[in-house]
Every structure is written in C-alpha cells, then in structure tokens.
Design brief:
This protein has 285 residues and is mostly helical. The protein folds into 2 domains: 201 residues, Up-down Bundle (Alpha-lytic protease prodomain-like), CATH 1.20.1510.10; 75 residues, Cation efflux protein, cytoplasmic domain (Alpha-Beta Plaits), CATH 3.30.70. The protein has 8 helices and 3 strands. The protein has a 3-stranded mixed beta sheet, covered by helices on one side. Strand 2, helix 8 and strand 3 form a beta-alpha-beta unit. Helix 1 runs antiparallel to helix 2, helix 2 runs antiparallel to helix 3 and helix 3 runs parallel beside helix 5. It is found in: Membrane. Keywords: Membrane, Transmembrane, Transmembrane helix, Transport. Its main location: membrane. This is Cation transporter.
C-alpha cells in the first residue's frame, strides 16, 4: 500500500513536469528568454529522474525470489543515486552558465509572461517537492525524498530567475552570482543524497539507539545476561536483516539454546520489524 502511494505520486510528478515544461518553453520562446528556456529543460529533466524513481519503486516492490532472497529493495537506493547524479549534472550546467554570464557581463530582460509563468512554476515545484519528501518519509522511500529535492532544485532555479527579474535591472551581475549559489546548493544536495545511499550499499554500523533497543529486549527471553553483541545490519530497502551474537551456558542443550535464540529473533521482529539471525556463543569460552 505504501509503495503504491509512492508510485501514484511519481506518476503525478511526471505528468506535472511535462505540463510545466511545455508552459515554460512557450514562455521562453514568447519572451525570447534563454534562461526561461533552459529552466524548461531543467524541469523536463525532473521527469527523467521521476521515471528512474518509478522504476526503482516498481522493482523494489517485487517479492523475494530464488536469485534475490532478500528482495529487490536496493533498487530504490540505485534510483536515488541516479537522481543524485542528475542533480550534479544540472548543478554543473548552472555553474558553467553563471560563469559565462559574469564573464560576458550579459544582462537579462524578461516580460510579464515570464514573470507569471516563473511564479507559477515556483509554487507548483515547491508543492511537488514538499509532497514527494513527505510521502518519501512516510513510506520510507529514499528515492522519493531524493526526487523531492530534485523538484526543489527546480523551484530554486525559478526563484533565481524571479529575483533576476526584479533586481537584474539594477545589478547586471546578480543573475550570475545567484546562479553560482544555486549550483553550490545543488552540489551539497547531491553530496547528501549520494553519501547516504552509497553508505547503505556499502553497509553501515548499527545505530546506537537501535542497539540499545535490541539489548533492552534481551531480559524478556532470558532471566540472565545473554550479552548481545557483534551486531551487523544489512538494509534492502524496506527490508532489514540483522545478525547478532548472544552468550549462553555451555551445558545448555541444543534445544534449550535454540529456543532462547528463536524467542529473541521473534521479539526483535515483533518490536522493530527487523529480521534477526542469532548466533550462540558459549559463556564458558
């Protein structure tokens, strides 16, 4: 159900981006504004990133199979990385264009059509950003959050153009300087998205709060300290696997030790929705 919400939201994103592209491209042609036309193509690139997110959501929703026993959840992580790379490309394009504007000391002239379309684009793209990020957090979809930031980058670029409209007639350099600032913001967003998702692919240490929560569950399966340790966490999208060790007396029967380990796995699954595998060490060692 949660994955379905993300897919519906992504379809809506693709449709809105295509409509915005057409309107902004028309406004750019009418006002002879290269900036508006470039911003239109930036909007169209959002549709490309949304398609990548859509593919990631659909693939990640596929159940586990023989070739992929842990499911297909990491397809979303890969989609997020694609979105991050697209943001980097857009950021570089903004940076290059801004430097050229400063070097040529070129001024920007906009008409009323450009003003109206830019304001509409700014409002719509910010709404799309907030909606995608909210749905992404609700459904725990990293690719949707990344796509939301992609929408926000388009809203910021529209804001830059809007600022240029009102202040560009007084300061010839403002469009170029603001473009560089936007580029730096896009690079930072790219860094944040790639850092988080590549870290998931490489594997991460267990969160201290989660470790404490797992340890706190131990007294519910044994009346002595079983020393939970050696935690390893593997994330596959919405599915998380964990391995950990516990210590039991060496004279315990296999069945008794197995029952304690199984009870621990069951309660971890129930309380945290994490599939745990418990390895038994001997207290006598």
């Amino acid at each position: 159900m949660e994955n379905k919400k993300g897919i519906i939201a992504t379809y809506g994103s693709i449709i809105l981006n295509i409509l915005l592209f057409g309107i902004k491209f028309w406004a750019g042609m009418v006002s002879s504004s290269v900036a508006i036309i470039a911003d239109a193509w930036h909007t169209l690139s959002d549709s490309i990133s949304s398609v990548a997110v859509l593919i990631g959501l659909k693939v990640s929703a596929k159940p586990a199979d023989k070739e992929h026993p842990y499911g297909h959840g990491r397809a979303e992580v890969l989609a997020s990385i694609v979105v991050g790379m697209l943001l980097a490309i857009i950021g570089f394009s903004f940076l290059k264009e801004s430097i050229v504007k400063l070097q040529s000391r070129s001024e920007v002239e906009y008409g009323m059509v450009a003003i109206v379309v830019t304001i509409v684009s700014l409002l719509v793209k910010e709404f799309m950003a907030q909606y995608s990020i909210r749905i992404g957090h609700k459904t725990k979809s990293k690719s949707m959050v990344a796509d939301g930031w992609h929408h926000r980058s388009d809203a910021i670029s529209s804001l830059v153009i809007l600022v240029g409209i009102f202040f560009g007639q007084y300061y010839w350099w403002i469009d170029g300087v603001l473009g560089i600032l936007v580029s730096l913001l896009l690079f930072y967003t790219t860094y944040s998205i790639l850092k988080e998702n590549i870290s998931h692919l490489l594997g991460e240490r267990i969160d201290d709060d989660l470790r404490g929560e797992i340890i706190a569950l131990a007294p519910e399966v044994a009346d002595f300290d079983i020393h939970p340790h050696h935690f390893l966490v593997h994330q596959y999208g919405h599915h998380t696997e964990m391995t950990l060790h516990i210590r039991l007396p060496g004279d315990y029967s296999i069945k008794r030790a197995h029952d304690i380990a199984t009870a621990y796995e069951v309660i971890i699954k129930k309380r945290t929705n994490i599939q745990a595998t418990v390895h038994i060490d001997s207290l006598d060692v």
